[in-house]
Amino acid sequence: MKVGFVGLGNQGKGLALNLAQAGHDLMVFDIRREPTAELASAGASIAESARAVGAHAEIVEVCVLDDAQVERVVLGPEGILAGARPGAIIAIHSTIHPATVSKVAEAAEAQRVEIVDAPVSGGANGARNKSVSYMVGGHDAAVDRCIPLFETSGRKITRTGPRGTGMKAKLAHQVIICINLLAAHEGMRLGREAGLSQDVLEKIVRDGGAQSRIADHWSQLSMRHLAPVLHKDLELCLDFARQLGLSMPGAALTQQMIDKIVP
User: Are 3 and 59 in contact (CB under 8 A)?
Assistant: First the structure.
């Protein structure tokens, strides 16, 4: 399949490498030279713009940082839609606001291009280990075409419903992840200050009702580089919650403290 990938950051690079290793005719774009050189070594062709990727691919996967970058690489004058042909699909892995998914989809539909929202959980390690999970919203036929590509990086793929529901699921997921970080930080801190060893604390968490993937191996986690991304994700969560008329004090507090609690 002719596939495109835009955004070769910590997670995107791993997802793209898996596509290349699976033998797809892959074209990638990123403004940085280092990851594009690595993809070239893996057999991918390197584009000079997102527009060129759109012209090449039947399906383009997008994994950039935020809403502004998604809009730029999809809707901009050198964006994917400027080159895409009718019948193409753009799968968005970035965590963005559901309203941005709708905005991009409206522009894409005018060109008979399909948008699938497919945010990812698992990070760079998950991409390397081919163990990421996908939350996928979109028309069934479009999702069906994307599944074989997603399976190159992980087989935990949940169809969430119509377009936009994948992103809503990811925001709910991020709230739970981040508040879990706060809970683990405070519990571990209390235990250490009381004189318990980290090994003992992690064992009682694994064996007890507080068990979680976050707390199980707290001392081994290295997520500091993700603090700005988690802060951004929580801002999206809180804004979306306000639109729904929901108060989320736990998420708001966690966002305020994110720099202090991420291990």
Answer: yes
Rounded CA-CA distance 43/153 in Å is 17
What's the chain's length in residues?
Answer: 263
What is the set of active-site residues?
170
For the CA atoms of the chain, what is the radius of gyration? Answer: 19
Question: CB–CB of 5/60 below 8 Å?
Answer: yes
Instruction: Say how far residue 140 (Cα) sits from the centre of its chain.
Output: 21
pLDDT, tens only, 40-92: 999 999 999 999 999 999 999 999 999 999 999 999 999 999 999 999 999 99
What is this structure's pTM? 0.96
CA 34, chain centre distance (Å): 21
Residue 134 has which token pair?
């996908």
At residue 216, does pLDDT exceed 90? no
DSSP strand pairing (120-121 vs 133-137)? antiparallel
On the 0-12 / 13-18 / 19+ scale of CB atoms within 10 A, 220 is: exposed
Question: What domains are defined for the chain?
Answer: 2-162 (3.40.50.720), 168-261 (1.10.1040.10)
Q: How far from the centroid of its chain's Cα atoms is residue 68's Cα?
A: 15
